[in-house]
Structure formats: structure tokens, C-alpha cells
């Protein structure tokens, strides 16, 4: 605790609800990422300074990073506190894990300052307090890949069971159409019950997708990237979704779907060329629809959160 | 076609509906297995001789192996036929793939006689005609592991998509309580709709199980061997099920469940010692219940159907 007084980390965007792997499979991106600079201070307080234009709360009990840091202080109970300078680049509400980046970034940075006293699972536990504040639910689908990197399976939350899945070197194209999909709406549109036959199809695809990742079998990954349960309902909330999906696959993308609960859409591709072509046609779709948008062409981030400066 | 006129194969029992992997995951056993001796004959007929006491039909259109051989002859259309001598050791209705062993064994043996002109996927297609006769449904959950060996994922039937999953060196204990579970009852007891939250739990477990097989992570396999959808309903049809399961896990088994649609129950164990202990306690349960039973202590069969004699 004496050696490092300040740390800066990059906390990446993440894609949860990986097509058929709704609620269980997620992956980390290289772009976009938030920058968090955390300092140890000698009073048991959390001070938050936002270096961005999102107008997020600076009251720690209302701030995603803040509640995570408070939960760590509560565990430590040793009189120290934190000053956080947050520079968010992942737009809140985009569906690519903005709150998870804030929550997990704070937890990981704090742990670095504290001499790595917590393991990754404990960090996920702390960070879930941020997700609880952001969405009302303790979930780890974005936090797990953010902290572990690559592709993660959250097999269970109670007890927490996170499994790293080998991530192939794939390119990821993300389009964020600047519309609002309220998490409440995205939840409400789901049905409490689903057809057993669709559930079977889904877990066959999940099994295929996981096997495809382990075998690095891009054809199998592509065949398994099919969601017969969630996407047919939620994609209704995202204008242009079907067009983006059909055109991306025609252009050679392996497949993809809604990122998190939307509105971002992602596509996986084997080559940068295809990933860029996919970005172009996504742009064309939203330009034609008259909806502002942002695209990213990036890769799967095998490391998750990394330190950039001390 | 001229070199080999007769072939004998061992066609193994299989476990379908591998706990959370209902309808998609199955594995092949070393014990029990059927013996099928197939001969090429010079007339387009199928002649069936049963060397066992099960009284199965010898009319080829009513016989599981028969319809498979007829479907192959229909494809070949070259005037040849088959004589089959079948010695079944897998009791029909046991839930460990008796019909699949007949169907797949006939397809594989025929292919050997024909100079291996069909690939495994085509053999599965032929063999599914036997399952159609036996159960009314073309399914490959038992046929796939019977033909491919080890553990298989049937991701999809239309189009057929079978994926081999690495099988750890596990011991398998099977108990076949000699009660009848009618396939119709086993089907009828399932609900057409299931809770989304249970479906998510199930596909989290399926993903964990597949990852566990790839990583050879016995703890993960054990944690993932949980079925929250089918077992709670179907286990009601099998007296002693809960007791067998609880006692097996207490004895150190990794987990297990209903084999196929029952009535057999299987348990996976890391050591032969535990697998034998599990067999003993299964025996104790059914002895106490006054139900005749048969137990097997065996291993996962990595090869599937093998040739024993020419």
C-alpha cells in the first residue's frame, strides 16, 4: 500500500449476451475503453472527478465506480479512501458494457493500489455492486470479460462460477445507433416462458459455440451464432437490425447479434477486411435511416483491464 | 465389395440426454454392446436372424436394423442384399440406446462390407431410419456417439451437424431397474414451455459441461452436471432416482442422471473405486425397493462401433 499511490487503467467495452449465450457468454473488446485514474487517499472517502461530458453523478453512492470503491473500503475498514478521475469513452446506454467498465475498472485499479490482495472472483463480486446500482441486478456478464479478458462463461452467479473460454483471433465490428433502448423495455419484451424446442435449439447452439471456441473452428462458430429465443423479440426495438444482420453475413461475417440488451449490434469476422466492410454497410444502413451512429472495428481483447500508468 | 463378404461388429450402448444436454449431448459406453454379423447376399433382400431372446421382429420393415439396411439398398440399387445375425445384449427399453445400437451397427457393418463408401454423417442419416421406426422420431442423440465414439454434440438435425467433444477418461456406472418407462409417457410428462430463467441455467450448465470436457476439468464437469428442466419431471417415473443420485454424489460420483428417457440411471466417476461403490449402493437401493435391476461399471468408449471379425 505504500509503494503505489496512483494507478491508471484502461477498462474495455464488453459484449454480453453473446447471441445464443444470453446471460452467460460475453467477450472483451479492445475499443472503446474507459480510462480510470485512481489514487489512495488518507481519509475514508470516495472523491469522484469526471473528465468527460456524460454528467455522471459524483456522489459516490450514486456513482457506479463509487459504490464499488465504497464496498471495497467497507471490506478493508482501514481508514483509506480513493480519489477517482474517470474519463469515460464508452457511452452509457450503448449496450457495450459502459457501467461494467466503470465498475470493474474501479475494482481492478483499487486492487492494484492495495497490492493485489483480492483475486479475480472477488473483484467481480465487488464490481457487481456497480451493476446493481446501474441496472438493479447483480450480474457479471459484462464484468467477467472486462476483468478476465477474452471470452467468459458465467455459469452461475450464486455461487459465482466464471470460466475462461479460449478466444479465437476474431475481428469485431460494433455499430451503436444513437437511439435509446431502455433496459426496462428490453427486459419487459422478453417472455417468462419459452418453448422447450427453442430452448433445446439454443443450448445446442451454446454447446456448439463453446466447442467452436475451443476448437478454433470458425465454421462451427458461425453455424452456432444463432439466437432463437431473445433476438426475435429484442431486435424489434432496434431499427435496421435485420438489414444489418443479413448484409453483414452476406459480406462474410461469421455472425453476431445484439450487444448486451442493445441498441448496439456486433458482428464477428475472420478478417479485418470483412470487419471493415461490415462497418461500412452498417454505416450505410443508419445513414439511410437517418439515425446517428458510431462504429468500431476492433478485436477480441484477451487481457481485459490493463494498467497504463502508475 | 468382392473382398469382404461378412463382418462382425460390436455396437455399444450409449447414454443420450446427458443431464443438462437434453437432446444434444450423448456418450458411448464400453459395456453393454450388441454383436451384429452382416453378410452380403446376391439378392436384394434383408434376412434377419436373431440370436437372442428378445423376440424382435424378423420382418425387415419392422426391424430397426432391417429398415436401415433397406434404406442403404435403396440408395445403392445394385441388386445386393444383406443377411444379419443379431445378438443383442442391450435390453430394448433400457434407455441406453438399444435401438441405436441395432440401427448404427447395421449401417456401419454394411458400410464395411461395401468398402467404406459412406462417411460417418451419411451413416447417421441411414441409421436414423431405425430410430424413426423405434420411436417415431428421427433423432441422432444415441446414434451419433454410437458411430463417432466418445462424447458427441448433435447441434442440429436439419441440417445434420454432429460435433465430437473430447471425452475424459471417466468411469460410468449404469443401473437399469427392470421397470418399463414408456417413451410416450416420458415425452408426455415434459412441458411444451419452460421458464426462461431455467433455460438460461440449463444453457449455462451445457456451456460449462462442454468447457469442462475440453479442459478435462472434473470439478467443472461435476458442477455443470445439473438438469433443472427435464430431470425434475422425468425422474418421477423412476422409483429410487433421488436416492440413487444423492447417495452416488455422496460417494464421490461427479454427477449423472437419467440415461436417455430412462429407466436407466447413470453416474460418472473419476475412479473405478468410486464407480464400483456407486454400483453397490445402486444395487442396495433397488434390492430394498424389491425391483429387479442390472448394473454396469464401464468407461467412456472412445471408438464407438468396432469390427471384431471378418
What does this entry look like structurally?
The structure is a homodimer of 310-residue chains. Chain A is of the alpha+beta class and 310 residues long. Chain A has two domains: 6-166 and 302-309, Ribosomal Protein S5, domain 2, CATH 3.30.230; 171-299, GHMP kinase, C-terminal domain (Alpha-Beta Plaits). Chain A contains ten helices and twelve strands. Chain A has helices at 64-76, 98-113, 120-135, 143-148, 183-188, 196-215, 218-224, 231-234, 241-250, 272-289, and strands at residues 6-15, 25-41, 46-50, 81-87, 151-156, 161-165, 171-177, 193-195, 255-258, 265-269, 293-299, 306-309. In chain A, strands 1, 2, 3, 4, 5, 6 and 12 form a seven-stranded mixed beta sheet that branches. The first copy, chain A, has a four-stranded antiparallel beta sheet with strand order 9-10-7-11. Chain A is globular, with a radius of gyration of 19 Å. The two termini of chain A are 13 Å apart. Chains A and B meet through strand 5, strand 6, strand 8, helix 6 and helix 7 of A and strand 5, strand 6, strand 8, helix 6 and helix 7 of B. Chains A, B: Belongs to the GHMP kinase family. Homoserine kinase subfamily. Chains A, B: This is Homoserine kinase. Chains A, B: It catalyses: L-homoserine + ATP = O-phospho-L-homoserine + ADP + H(+). Chains A, B: Its EC number is 2.7.1.39. Chains A, B: It is an enzyme of class 2 (transferase).
